[in-house]
Amino acid sequence: MMKFVFYFTVISTVIFPLGKCYSEEKNVNNNMIINAPFENFERKFKPDWKDLDTRQLPKWYDDAKIGIFLHWGLYCVPGYHSEWFWAYWKGGDKEIVKFMADNYPPGFTYQDFAPMFKAEFFNASDFAELFLKSGAKYVVLTSKHHEGYTLFPSKRSFSWNSVETGPHRDLVGELSEAVRQKGLKFGVYHSLYEWYNPIYLEDKKANFTTRHYAESKLWPDLKQLVNDYKPSVIWSDGDWEANDTYWKSTDLLAWLYNDSPVKDEIVVNDRWGIGTSCKHGDFYNCADRYNPGKLQNHKWENAFTMDLTSWGYRRNMAIQDVMSIDKFLFHVISTVSCGGNALINVGPTKEGTIAPIFAERLLELGQWLKVNGEGIYESSPWMSQNDTFNHFVWYTCRKQQYNAYRPTARPKKSDTVTAIYAFFLKWPSNNNDMLVIADITKYLQKGNWQVNVLGYDEPLRWETTNTGKTKIYLPRIEKVKSKHAWTLKFKPRQ
Q1: Which domain holds residue 457?
Q2: Residue 8: predicted pLDDT
Q3: Which residues does the chain have with pLDDT short of 50?
Q4: Is the overall model pTM greater than 0.85, yes or no?
Q5: Of 346, 374, 402, which residue sits at a domain end?
Q6: One domain for residues 284 and 358
Q7: What average pLDDT does the chain have?
């Protein structure tokens, strides 16, 4: 991931009856957008940020909401510290230097880990089945991290790949096929740079006035990935040492959008050179584990880890290092409420398995989404995100129109909203199971609404107060299917 510091439901349809609770939209040319048609496939994009930034977001990505991230590489063999193991070791980190001295023979190199990466238990179909059960809609695999070792038979890696050394298998190919067979989208993470590639280091030494690495290694690898595996996502990383002009990022994106075999559905993130993060790309990451807690103007993604310390697998991970299911659901719900997608990271082992605690969390998420998913998938941000009175409550809504220019926008006057959802992360502690919220009140007072809690069949009794609050009388908690977070559905009556 990013640089570390070290030494070196279709419901009853009504027109949105909520008075002035809407916002108007303008595109980058300051023109009004009213249900604009999807135009990506009818034009050619120029290789400059101003034009590339006008591309509309393919709808599948905004609808998906939930993805799985896999950080898998040679760093899972030592399974210690993090996926930055090699860089910290070379940088003289005392903890890692001692670990290597205590556990490996003198002269042992990072390359010597490669034969130990066997992935002998890896079954791509089992992985895909777990991800399907988790409720995820897309999967992103590290085709190459900063170490340079690729999980596909790179024609430019010269034996530093999973087909020629280690598992002797095309891990990208196996997983991409298995994931698609389950109906999920497949994507690849790819690091732009490589820590110790001598060609890259020569370009770096020349202050990136030469582009030998970018032209002879990076571009061929990326084009091979796109042409051979046809990913729906390219998740770029390792961009912080050179400007986008060195990487020729705009040329690559123009090719992806105009002429590649995935031009109709590809989405890319924002890590394409110094200063591009949170400024350019189909969706923004901005930072690792980015969850701003408020609505963003551009589609974004919260890539976060269940292991609170590392993206790669750690053999010495303790149970307290693993995110609890309550915290896990908080990140999913708050992210989607604010217009983002949740990309949930798992670090597989060198044997090609997923730790049972990670699998358990993913299955718990899947069970939760079976009950509450209609407020997550294909949802849009509502007028409010986090309730101003009850900070345990987050909102989404469903609307018929897709805003391809600004998927994160609040509902407009012309939008048809079919339901509003309020997720509450804490069951009320009062004796009568009464939930009190505020931001929905003025809308409830203007219409005729039915209120349900998902996972319970009967409508709920509710009332508004003259102090701007809404009281919702919940059933007993044991009668509701969800066990950790719950969803209210506000449906306008016909």
Answers
A1: 393-492
A2: 33
A3: 3-37
A4: yes
A5: 374
A6: yes
A7: 92
